[in-house]
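Researcher: Let's do a round of design. I'm pasting the structure tokens now; please hold your answer until I've finished.
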């Protein structure tokens, strides 16, 4: 009977000891894990903070660069605008841009004479290159801004060549239509002046040369479309 009583005390003691040991082991395992987890979070936070500081530095650098660019633009803006205006005027003077406005339409055409007419009569009834240049000179003298002949823009490099009319390399045939943009009233007075274009008016009346001048409120002269060749000038 005494042995069972001792065993009854020993078994609970063993169980209690096992529970105490298990609890201690659990606590000892849990504490290092929690500590390691906290360390990992702290390191991640430090890394994010460092990355944020780097991004802030980059942003500040980019803003400074943008400010510098804007400052340079503010300084050179007026100069660039002035150069653009000068370039636009130069292109217009060279005939490289189309021009619209009021002006005159001048038509020159061969007179209708029979083939049996004397050679002199036929010669005086047809359009020659000198007639083209006379009309052009009258228009420029009266303040023409832009001129085209049968769609060919007249520029400083244009030439009227030979018995076969050739302008800007294009062979033209009558009728010759001059589209002239400029002060229409002043140009009309120039063309109607009895002392101007005397030869063309005389041949119109005597030999049937067709010479007509009309005013127009809206005309368009195209841009020069040929090549810009430099034959004699050289860069320095």
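Researcher: That's everything. Go ahead.
Model: Designed sequence:
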């Amino acid at each position: 009977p005494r042995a069972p009583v001792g065993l009854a005390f020993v078994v609970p003691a063993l169980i209690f000891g096992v529970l105490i040991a298990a609890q201690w082991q659990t606590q000892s395992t849990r504490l290092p894990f929690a500590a390691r987890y906290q360390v990992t979070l702290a390191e991640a936070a430090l890394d994010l903070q460092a990355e944020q500081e780097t991004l802030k530095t980059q942003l500040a650098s980019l803003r400074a660069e943008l400010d510098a660019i804007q400052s340079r633009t503010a300084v050179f803006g007026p100069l660039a605008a002035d150069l653009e205006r000068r370039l636009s005027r130069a292109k217009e003077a060279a005939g490289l841009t189309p021009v619209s406005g009021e002006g005159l339409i001048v038509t020159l055409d061969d007179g209708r004479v029979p083939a049996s007419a004397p050679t002199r009569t036929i010669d005086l009834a047809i359009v020659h290159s000198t007639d083209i240049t006379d009309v052009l000179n009258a228009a420029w003298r009266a303040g023409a801004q832009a001129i085209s002949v049968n769609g060919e823009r007249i520029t400083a490099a244009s030439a009227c060549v030979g018995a076969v009319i050739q302008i800007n390399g294009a062979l033209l045939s009558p009728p010759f239509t001059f589209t002239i943009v400029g002060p229409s009233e002043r140009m009309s007075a120039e063309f109607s002046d009895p002392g101007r274009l005397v030869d063309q008016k005389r041949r119109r009346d005597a030999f049937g040369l067709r010479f007509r001048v009309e005013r127009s409120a809206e005309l368009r002269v195209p841009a020069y479309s040929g090549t810009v060749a430099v034959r004699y000038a050289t860069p320095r």
